[in-house]
Design brief:
Layout lengths: L1 E10 L2 E11 L2 E6 L6 H8 L7 E6 L2 E2 L4 H5 L2 E4 L11 H11 L4 H14 L15 H12 L6 E5 L7 H14 L4 E5 L3 H7 L2 E6 L2 E6 L1 H8 L4 H9 L4
Parallel strand pairs: 3-8, 3-9, 6-7, 7-8
Antiparallel strand pairs: 1-2, 1-4, 4-5, 9-10
Length: about 240
């Protein structure tokens, strides 16, 4: 559902993304790397927030540079900073996003019920977003991004700010959604990676260093768990 070919992006003399290529169809992919490795720039290229210097991105067969609108219809994206409107209620915000997608009323009602139940946010939908905890804001943002049930979902730190129970609900939801769709998760929370990831992309200095499974990631690094594995593969590169 995503094909990235030789993606490159340079800012002044810094190559933030340097010739990254990968193909992914479904499941959960964890995008890993230290701060400044190029993860955010890569996500912005995949969502066409930024244009690449060279290379191309296909979303569900549509090249994003040539058929932007068609490609973006298949993407749901939640950045790390939860870009919500605090004066709106949670329901009004999700409905606002659904209207932007021009979703039919019956489809919206069905999709909304599914997401509100799975993300356990039914009880806060009449509250203003400004009154919600960080965890609830995060889940409302995810619900809005998925209200059109996209085939490709990109989540930046999806469990940040959630308590242990909330994390478990979100992880389970991601795993279920990824059974028939593609979910790309950028995170520093190694616990999330071990719990949900089918595949890991490790980025360092704009390059794709590893494209592997969780088990192989730990095996290659000699780490007993994901934290030690990540440390072993990246700490010496600082």
């Amino acid at each position: 559902m995503i094909v990235a070919e030789n993606l490159t992006k340079t800012f002044d003399e810094i190559k933030a993304v340097d010739g990254i290529s990968f193909t992914a169809k479904k499941g959960v992919i964890a995008l890993l790397g230290q701060n400044g490795a190029g993860k955010t720039t890569l996500i912005r290229l995949l969502t066409d927030y930024l244009s690449s210097d060279c290379g191309k991105v296909l979303i569900c067969g549509e090249e994003i540079a040539e058929k932007r609108q068609e490609a973006l219809l298949n993407i749901g994206y939640v950045p790390e900073n939860n870009p919500l409107y605090p004066e709106m209620t949670a329901f009004d915000y999700v409905k606002f996003v659904a209207d932007l997608w021009k979703i039919k009323k019956t489809d919206f009602q069905k999709n909304f019920r599914l997401l509100a139940e799975k993300l356990e946010i039914k009880g806060v939908m009449t509250q203003k977003i400004s009154t919600l905890s960080k965890g609830y804001k995060r889940r409302v943002a995810i619900a809005a991004a998925l209200v059109h049930l996209p085939k490709v979902v990109i989540l930046d730190e999806p469990t940040d700010g959630l308590d242990p129970n909330q994390k478990q609900f979100v992880r389970q939801f991601i795993k279920e959604y990824a059974k028939s769709n593609l979910v790309l998760v950028s995170t520093h929370i190694m616990e999330d990676v071990e719990a949900i990831a089918d595949r890991i992309l490790l980025v360092e200095k704009g390059r794709l260093l590893l494209d592997t499974t969780v088990a192989e990631f730990k095996k290659k690094s000699g780490g007993k768990d994901m934290i030690s594995a990540f440390h072993n593969l990246t700490a010496h590169k600082e």
